[in-house]
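Feature request disguised as a bug: please show the residue count (282) next to Sentrin-specific protease 3 in the output. Example input:
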Amino acid sequence: TPPARATPPGGQPSPPLREEHVTCVQSILDEFLQAYGSLIPVSADEVVEKLEDIFQQEFSTPQRRGSVQQLLQSYQRLPGSALLRGFRVSYKRHVLTMDDLQTLYGPNWLNDQVMNMYGDLVMDAVPDKVHFFNSFFYDKLRTRGYEGVQRWTKNVDIFGKELLLIPIHLEVHWSLVAVDVGRRTITYFDSQRTLNRRCPKHICRYLQAEADKKERPDFREGWRGAFKMNVARQNNDSDCGAFVLQYCKFLALGRPFSFTQQDMPHLRRLMYKELCHCQLAL
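Example output, currently without the count:
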Protein backbone atom coordinates (compact mmCIF):
# COMPACT_ATOMS: atom_id res chain seq x y z
CA THR A 1 0.00 0.00 0.00
CA PRO A 2 1.44 3.41 -0.90
CA PRO A 3 2.39 5.40 2.21
CA ALA A 4 0.17 8.19 3.51
CA ARG A 5 0.61 11.58 1.89
CA ALA A 6 2.89 13.90 3.87
CA THR A 7 2.85 17.68 3.49
CA PRO A 8 6.26 19.36 3.61
CA PRO A 9 6.38 22.50 5.81
CA GLY A 10 4.97 25.48 3.94
CA GLY A 11 4.59 23.60 0.66
CA GLN A 12 2.30 21.48 -1.49
CA PRO A 13 1.99 17.79 -0.63
CA SER A 14 4.53 15.83 -2.68
CA PRO A 15 2.73 13.09 -4.62
CA PRO A 16 3.15 9.67 -3.05
CA LEU A 17 4.23 6.66 -5.08
CA ARG A 18 1.47 5.47 -7.38
CA GLU A 19 0.71 1.82 -8.01
CA GLU A 20 2.66 1.85 -11.28
CA HIS A 21 5.70 3.22 -9.41
CA VAL A 22 5.48 0.45 -6.81
CA THR A 23 5.22 -2.18 -9.56
CA CYS A 24 8.21 -0.64 -11.30
CA VAL A 25 10.27 -0.67 -8.07
CA GLN A 26 9.53 -4.39 -7.70
CA SER A 27 10.68 -5.10 -11.24
CA ILE A 28 13.86 -3.00 -10.71
CA LEU A 29 14.60 -5.01 -7.55
CA ASP A 30 14.05 -8.26 -9.47
CA GLU A 31 16.63 -7.12 -12.03
CA PHE A 32 19.15 -6.32 -9.30
CA LEU A 33 18.48 -9.70 -7.70
CA GLN A 34 19.29 -11.50 -10.95
CA ALA A 35 22.47 -9.46 -11.41
CA TYR A 36 23.80 -9.75 -7.86
CA GLY A 37 22.13 -12.79 -6.31
CA SER A 38 20.91 -10.62 -3.42
CA LEU A 39 20.00 -7.02 -2.66
CA ILE A 40 23.04 -6.56 -0.38
CA PRO A 41 24.81 -4.12 -2.75
CA VAL A 42 21.67 -2.15 -3.69
CA SER A 43 20.86 1.25 -2.21
CA ALA A 44 17.59 3.20 -2.32
CA ASP A 45 19.38 5.96 -4.27
CA GLU A 46 20.07 3.58 -7.17
CA VAL A 47 16.40 2.58 -7.33
CA VAL A 48 15.40 6.27 -7.20
CA GLU A 49 17.77 7.03 -10.09
CA LYS A 50 16.23 4.27 -12.23
CA LEU A 51 12.69 5.49 -11.43
CA GLU A 52 13.65 9.02 -12.48
CA ASP A 53 15.04 7.70 -15.77
CA ILE A 54 11.89 5.69 -16.47
CA PHE A 55 9.21 8.21 -15.43
CA GLN A 56 11.14 11.45 -16.05
CA GLN A 57 10.03 12.95 -12.74
CA GLU A 58 11.55 13.52 -9.34
CA PHE A 59 11.66 10.67 -6.83
CA SER A 60 14.43 11.99 -4.59
CA THR A 61 12.17 14.06 -2.32
CA PRO A 62 12.43 12.84 1.28
CA GLN A 63 8.92 11.36 1.17
CA ARG A 64 9.31 9.47 -2.10
CA ARG A 65 12.83 8.32 -1.33
CA GLY A 66 11.57 7.10 2.07
CA SER A 67 8.83 5.13 0.33
CA VAL A 68 11.41 3.51 -1.97
CA GLN A 69 13.55 2.68 1.07
CA GLN A 70 10.53 1.03 2.75
CA LEU A 71 9.78 -1.02 -0.38
CA LEU A 72 13.42 -2.12 -0.58
CA GLN A 73 13.39 -3.20 3.07
CA SER A 74 10.05 -5.03 2.83
CA TYR A 75 11.23 -6.81 -0.34
CA GLN A 76 14.35 -7.94 1.50
CA ARG A 77 12.16 -9.39 4.26
CA LEU A 78 9.97 -11.44 1.89
CA PRO A 79 10.84 -15.14 2.26
CA GLY A 80 12.76 -16.39 -0.75
CA SER A 81 12.95 -13.03 -2.53
CA ALA A 82 16.09 -11.54 -1.03
CA LEU A 83 18.58 -14.24 -2.01
CA LEU A 84 19.30 -16.52 -4.96
CA ARG A 85 20.85 -19.47 -3.15
CA GLY A 86 22.44 -20.99 -6.25
CA PHE A 87 23.97 -17.71 -7.47
CA ARG A 88 27.64 -18.04 -8.51
CA VAL A 89 30.32 -15.73 -9.82
CA SER A 90 33.06 -17.45 -11.85
CA TYR A 91 36.26 -15.70 -12.89
CA LYS A 92 39.40 -17.52 -13.98
CA ARG A 93 39.93 -20.15 -11.28
CA HIS A 94 37.69 -18.37 -8.76
CA VAL A 95 34.12 -19.32 -7.94
CA LEU A 96 32.24 -17.17 -5.44
CA THR A 97 29.06 -18.49 -3.85
CA MET A 98 26.41 -16.51 -1.98
CA ASP A 99 28.14 -17.52 1.27
CA ASP A 100 31.32 -15.80 0.03
CA LEU A 101 29.56 -12.68 -1.24
CA GLN A 102 27.57 -12.34 1.99
CA THR A 103 30.85 -11.72 3.85
CA LEU A 104 30.68 -8.23 2.27
CA TYR A 105 27.43 -7.51 4.11
CA GLY A 106 27.37 -5.38 7.25
CA PRO A 107 29.92 -6.24 9.92
CA ASN A 108 30.97 -9.62 8.48
CA TRP A 109 34.64 -10.54 8.11
CA LEU A 110 35.78 -10.92 4.50
CA ASN A 111 36.92 -14.43 3.59
CA ASP A 112 39.87 -15.69 1.51
CA GLN A 113 37.76 -16.35 -1.60
CA VAL A 114 36.66 -12.71 -1.75
CA MET A 115 40.17 -11.44 -1.02
CA ASN A 116 41.78 -13.57 -3.72
CA MET A 117 39.32 -12.89 -6.51
CA TYR A 118 39.40 -9.16 -5.76
CA GLY A 119 43.20 -9.32 -5.85
CA ASP A 120 43.00 -10.79 -9.35
CA LEU A 121 40.69 -7.94 -10.42
CA VAL A 122 43.26 -5.47 -9.07
CA MET A 123 46.03 -7.14 -11.10
CA ASP A 124 43.90 -7.15 -14.25
CA ALA A 125 43.09 -3.44 -13.87
CA VAL A 126 46.80 -2.61 -14.32
CA PRO A 127 48.17 -5.44 -16.49
CA ASP A 128 51.80 -6.47 -15.89
CA LYS A 129 52.39 -3.81 -13.21
CA VAL A 130 51.18 -5.55 -10.07
CA HIS A 131 51.42 -9.01 -8.55
CA PHE A 132 48.89 -9.90 -5.85
CA PHE A 133 49.94 -12.85 -3.70
CA ASN A 134 47.31 -15.39 -2.67
CA SER A 135 46.04 -14.80 0.87
CA PHE A 136 47.50 -18.15 2.02
CA PHE A 137 51.00 -17.17 0.87
CA TYR A 138 52.21 -15.36 3.98
CA ASP A 139 51.09 -18.01 6.44
CA LYS A 140 52.87 -20.67 4.38
CA LEU A 141 56.02 -18.50 4.22
CA ARG A 142 55.90 -17.85 7.96
CA THR A 143 55.47 -21.51 8.90
CA ARG A 144 57.43 -23.31 6.16
CA GLY A 145 60.02 -20.74 5.04
CA TYR A 146 61.05 -20.03 1.46
CA GLU A 147 60.95 -23.74 0.54
CA GLY A 148 57.21 -23.77 1.29
CA VAL A 149 56.43 -21.04 -1.26
CA GLN A 150 59.20 -21.05 -3.86
CA ARG A 151 56.98 -22.72 -6.48
CA TRP A 152 54.26 -20.08 -6.07
CA THR A 153 56.08 -17.68 -8.42
CA LYS A 154 57.66 -20.15 -10.82
CA ASN A 155 55.78 -18.50 -13.74
CA VAL A 156 56.02 -14.94 -12.41
CA ASP A 157 58.97 -12.55 -12.51
CA ILE A 158 58.11 -10.52 -9.42
CA PHE A 159 61.13 -8.28 -9.98
CA GLY A 160 59.66 -7.25 -13.33
CA LYS A 161 56.62 -5.79 -11.54
CA GLU A 162 56.29 -2.30 -10.09
CA LEU A 163 54.24 -3.32 -7.05
CA LEU A 164 53.77 -6.51 -5.01
CA LEU A 165 50.69 -6.79 -2.79
CA ILE A 166 50.80 -9.38 -0.01
CA PRO A 167 47.68 -9.72 2.18
CA ILE A 168 48.53 -10.80 5.72
CA HIS A 169 45.95 -12.84 7.64
CA LEU A 170 46.89 -13.53 11.24
CA GLU A 171 44.16 -15.20 13.28
CA VAL A 172 41.23 -12.81 12.80
CA HIS A 173 42.96 -9.71 11.43
CA TRP A 174 43.84 -8.66 7.87
CA SER A 175 46.70 -6.28 7.05
CA LEU A 176 48.81 -5.67 3.94
CA VAL A 177 52.45 -5.56 2.87
CA ALA A 178 53.12 -3.54 -0.29
CA VAL A 179 56.51 -3.84 -1.97
CA ASP A 180 57.64 -1.02 -4.26
CA VAL A 181 60.10 -3.01 -6.35
CA GLY A 182 61.84 -0.04 -7.97
CA ARG A 183 62.38 1.80 -4.68
CA ARG A 184 63.16 -1.41 -2.74
CA THR A 185 60.65 -0.50 -0.02
CA ILE A 186 58.53 -2.93 2.01
CA THR A 187 55.61 -1.04 3.57
CA TYR A 188 53.23 -2.43 6.16
CA PHE A 189 49.64 -1.13 6.13
CA ASP A 190 47.33 -1.88 9.03
CA SER A 191 43.96 -0.22 9.60
CA GLN A 192 44.32 -0.95 13.34
CA ARG A 193 47.81 0.64 13.25
CA THR A 194 49.50 -2.23 15.02
CA LEU A 195 53.24 -2.69 14.56
CA ASN A 196 54.04 -6.17 13.34
CA ARG A 197 57.82 -5.90 13.02
CA ARG A 198 58.37 -9.53 12.06
CA CYS A 199 56.18 -9.34 8.99
CA PRO A 200 58.35 -6.97 6.84
CA LYS A 201 61.42 -8.97 7.94
CA HIS A 202 59.85 -12.21 6.67
CA ILE A 203 59.05 -10.51 3.35
CA CYS A 204 62.58 -9.08 3.09
CA ARG A 205 64.10 -12.55 3.59
CA TYR A 206 61.67 -13.94 1.02
CA LEU A 207 62.70 -11.32 -1.57
CA GLN A 208 66.38 -12.07 -0.98
CA ALA A 209 65.81 -15.82 -1.36
CA GLU A 210 63.76 -15.25 -4.51
CA ALA A 211 66.53 -13.04 -5.94
CA ASP A 212 69.01 -15.87 -5.30
CA LYS A 213 66.71 -18.50 -6.80
CA LYS A 214 65.96 -16.44 -9.92
CA GLU A 215 69.63 -15.33 -10.20
CA ARG A 216 68.84 -11.64 -9.83
CA PRO A 217 71.70 -10.38 -7.62
CA ASP A 218 70.67 -6.76 -8.23
CA PHE A 219 67.60 -7.44 -6.06
CA ARG A 220 69.52 -9.14 -3.24
CA GLU A 221 70.29 -6.03 -1.16
CA GLY A 222 68.94 -2.57 -0.39
CA TRP A 223 65.47 -3.46 0.88
CA ARG A 224 64.03 -1.10 3.51
CA GLY A 225 61.00 -1.67 5.74
CA ALA A 226 58.48 1.01 6.70
CA PHE A 227 55.21 1.26 8.62
CA LYS A 228 52.46 3.48 7.23
CA MET A 229 50.86 4.82 10.39
CA ASN A 230 48.81 7.69 8.97
CA VAL A 231 46.42 5.52 6.98
CA ALA A 232 42.64 5.54 7.39
CA ARG A 233 41.80 3.73 10.59
CA GLN A 234 38.98 1.29 11.29
CA ASN A 235 36.93 1.85 14.43
CA ASN A 236 35.35 -1.61 14.61
CA ASP A 237 36.53 -5.22 14.63
CA SER A 238 35.20 -6.23 11.24
CA ASP A 239 36.39 -3.91 8.45
CA CYS A 240 40.10 -4.80 8.31
CA GLY A 241 39.63 -6.93 5.17
CA ALA A 242 37.65 -4.20 3.42
CA PHE A 243 40.42 -1.69 4.24
CA VAL A 244 43.08 -4.06 2.85
CA LEU A 245 41.26 -4.44 -0.47
CA GLN A 246 40.87 -0.67 -0.76
CA TYR A 247 44.58 -0.20 0.01
CA CYS A 248 45.32 -2.68 -2.81
CA LYS A 249 43.06 -0.94 -5.30
CA PHE A 250 44.30 2.59 -4.55
CA LEU A 251 47.98 1.58 -4.49
CA ALA A 252 47.66 -0.30 -7.79
CA LEU A 253 45.94 2.69 -9.43
CA GLY A 254 48.50 5.11 -7.96
CA ARG A 255 45.85 7.09 -6.08
CA PRO A 256 46.14 8.61 -2.60
CA PHE A 257 43.89 6.96 0.00
CA SER A 258 40.72 9.04 0.08
CA PHE A 259 38.46 6.74 2.12
CA THR A 260 37.67 6.53 5.82
CA GLN A 261 35.71 4.25 8.12
CA GLN A 262 32.53 6.15 7.20
CA ASP A 263 32.92 5.05 3.56
CA MET A 264 33.07 1.34 4.33
CA PRO A 265 29.32 0.49 3.98
CA HIS A 266 29.33 2.10 0.50
CA LEU A 267 32.69 0.54 -0.44
CA ARG A 268 31.54 -2.93 0.66
CA ARG A 269 28.52 -2.58 -1.68
CA LEU A 270 30.80 -1.36 -4.47
CA MET A 271 33.23 -4.29 -4.01
CA TYR A 272 30.30 -6.72 -4.12
CA LYS A 273 29.29 -5.26 -7.50
CA GLU A 274 32.86 -5.22 -8.80
CA LEU A 275 33.14 -8.93 -8.00
CA CYS A 276 29.83 -9.68 -9.77
CA HIS A 277 30.92 -7.65 -12.83
CA CYS A 278 34.42 -9.23 -12.67
CA GLN A 279 35.91 -5.77 -13.10
CA LEU A 280 36.99 -2.89 -10.89
CA ALA A 281 34.98 0.32 -11.06
CA LEU A 282 37.62 2.86 -12.03
